[in-house]
Design a protein that fits this description.
The structure holds two protein chains of two kinds. By secondary structure, chain A is mostly helical. Chain A contains six helices and two strands. Chain A has a two-stranded antiparallel ribbon with strand order 1-2. Chain B has two domains: 147 residues, Aspartate Aminotransferase, domain 1 (Alpha-Beta Complex), CATH 3.90.1150; 255 residues, Type I PLP-dependent aspartate aminotransferase-like (Major domain) (Aspartate Aminotransferase, domain 2, 3-Layer(aba) Sandwich), CATH 3.40.640. Chain B contains 14 helices and 17 strands. A seven-stranded mixed β-sheet of chain B has the order 4-10-9-8-7-5-6, with helices on both faces. In chain B, strands 13-14-17-16 form a four-stranded antiparallel β-sheet, covered by helices on one side. A two-stranded antiparallel sheet of chain B has the order 1-2. Classes of the chains: A mainly alpha, B alpha/beta. At the A-B interface, helix 2 and helix 3 of A face helix 12 of B. Chain A: InterPro entries: Fe-S_metab-assoc_dom. Chain A: This is Cysteine desulfuration protein SufE.
Chain lengths: 142, 412
């Protein structure tokens, strides 16, 4: 299993192949289609991430001390963003997720989505992923 | 061949020079600003008034003996008279400055808290902005009055038979927007006012969306209350107006306690100042009021008939161009609407379309436009809303329509 840093570097290199924002967005939309989809039973209010104009659901499960994330969104660009995050964090131990930095988002030309006023709630998604890591870490220690 | 702009009733290219912001670029593209229903842009003439105020006569008003205070007071009261004349209000003291439409609505709602009792009814329309619904729900909770809703039709108009069915002697207040912010529908407020008066009720009209396009004559309408916001009429944010009939303004209790609204204070009793100060506690938004007056002057110099005719031309052109896009559905198809187009394309989320349009330099609104009940009616998460102003052009509409096509091909 590659480290979070390796995966993020891989994503950065993939996005560097594109000359303009349009190609980057098209690629992101493609990535959205490969998102490990959340089980329909978790698509409830409880798993919704607040602060997004579109709906985003994220679910996390601990398997062999690693967190597996699944998600979905009703907006395709949001789905692409969450797919990038999940690719980077899914299958990693909780501590590694907590330690990871998220500046790679900036490096792939999606900086505008990091603004807290942005309606897609990328910041909320990252927060939610880290919260799951906190929870599973606490559980492991107890 | 003539360019699209020259077919208009306005010299738009000259008007555009008044708006410095229209020269800027967004994401490397020339800005196409189609979010006018959220806030209008500010002409240099209004910006100059704001700069002049802070550069030359910034002072607190109504109390000072010194020259600056006098000048500021004069300018502020002159602005009030500009608003009074614009809306054909009988007296300047019935022209109350507020911080905006929502503030005006809350003044009326809190005043009615003292008047309503259990069993009374308030009617609101299904086309309301959230800010129009929440204060009335709170008022009903407080007084035991009941909230009734005028239903809407699929074309985005008020169902007037539905209105007749809920209107009764119990109706104390009807609350309706002149123009719907989400769909642009112009509501039949004349009919609503006449019928409500027949049963002895009062009518509060939210003119926020109408005021940039329609010059409302409050006396001809015979409306009881009319509220507007300065920032939708080329003025600054944080300033608005509440008009009220004299009998109502006398009857309603003050909204807030504080400076300016007091006549005499002793420990036994406070007597309130007369209108308009009774509703204008504290130091007001002096510069905002003066700039609002300047904005009204600016719009009147162009002329509301010209503005309405030109914006209708833009609306017709944009509607026609958008309808050529396969799978695009326009919400709000009333024959009477302002220059607002709310739409979706197939199942594409409005947020996705808005994001791509932004990358292409086109500013629109996406989401539920603070009108969740309308979105629930159509069973959609929201719409993309493009709203036009007199400084927009057909060339910009072409750029916008191409951007929508591009978004569709990327997202579809």
């Amino acid at each position: 299993m590659s480290s979070i840093q390796d995966i993020q570097q891989e994503i950065i290199e993939e996005f560097e192949m594109f000359d303009d924002w349009m190609q980057r967005y098209e690629y992101m939309i493609e990535l959205g289609k490969s998102l490990p989809l959340i089980d329909e039973k978790y698509k409830t209010e409880e798993y919704i991430i607040k602060g997004c104009q579109s709906k985003v659901w994220v679910h996390a499960d601990l398997k062999d001390d690693k967190i597996e994330f699944t998600a979905d969104s009703d907006a395709i660009i949001t789905k692409g963003i969450i797919a990038i995050l999940i690719r980077s964090f899914s299958g990693q131990p909780p501590q590694a997720i907590l330690d990871a930095d998220t500046s790679f988002i900036d490096k792939i030309g999606l900086k505008e989505h990091l603004s807290p006023t942005r309606a897609n709630g990328l910041v909320s998604m990252i927060k939610q992923i880290k919260l799951y890591a906190v929870a599973y870490q606490a559980k492991a220690e107890s | 061949m003539a360019t699209a702009s020259t077919t208009s009733t306005l010299d738009v290219l000259r008007i555009r020079k008044d708006f410095p912001i229209l020269n800027r670029k967004v994401n490397g593209q020339p800005l196409v600003y189609f979010d006018n229903a959220a806030t209008s842009q500010t002409p240099q003439q209004v910006i100059d008034v704001i700069v002049d105020y802070y550069s030359n006569y910034n002072a607190n008003i109504h109390r000072g003996v010194h020259a600056l205070s006098q000048e500021a007071t004069d300018a502020y009261e002159q602005a009030r008279i500009k608003l009074q004349k614009h809306f054909n209000i009988p007296n300047a003291y019935q022209t109350l400055f507020t911080s905006g439409t929502t503030h005006g609505i809350n003044i009326v709602a809190s005043g009615f808290a003292e008047i309503l009792k259990a069993g009374d009814e308030i009617i609101v329309s299904a086309l309301e902005h959230h800010s129009n619904i929440v204060p009335w729900q709170m008022l009903c909770e407080k007084t035991g009055a009941t909230l009734k809703v005028i239903p809407m039709t699929t074309s985005g108009e008020l169902d007037m038979e539905g209105f007749d069915a809920i209107l009764s002697e119990k109706t104390k207040l009807v609350f309706v927007n002149h123009v719907s912010n989400a769909l642009g529908t112009v509501n039949p407020i004349e009919e609503i006012i006449t019928k409500t008066h027949q049963v002895g009720g009062a009518v509060l009209v939210d003119g926020a969306q109408a005021s940039p396009h329609i010059k409302a004559n409050v006396q001809a309408l015979d409306v009881d209350f009319y509220v507007v916001s300065g920032h939708k009429m080329c003025g600054p944010t944080g300033i608005g107006m509440l008009y009220g009939k004299e009998k109502w303004l006398e009857k309603l209790p003050p909204y807030q306690g504080g400076g300016e609204m007091i006549d005499q204070v002793t420990f036994e009793k406070t007597t309130y100042a007369g209108l308009p100060h009774k509703f204008e506690a504290g130091t007001p938004n002096i510069c905002g009021g003066i700039a609002f007056g300047a904005a009204i002057d600016y719009m009147n110099a162009i002329g509301f008939e010209h503005i309405a005719a030109y914006e209708h031309e833009l609306l017709t052109y944009a509607t026609q161009k958008l309808q050529e896009i396969e799978g695009l559905r326009i919400y709000g198809e009333s024959k009477h609407k302002t220059a607002v187009i709310s739409f979706n394309i197939g199942d594409i989320h409005p947020y996705d379309i808005g994001t791509i349009l932004d990358k292409l330099g086109v500013a629109v609104r996406t989401g539920h436009h603070c009108a969740q009940p309308i979105m629930d009616f159509y069973k959609i998460p929201g719409t993309v809303r493009a709203s036009f102003s007199f400084y927009n052009t057909k060339e910009e509409i072409d750029i916008f329509v191409n951007a929508v096509r591009k978004a569709k091909s990327m997202l579809g």
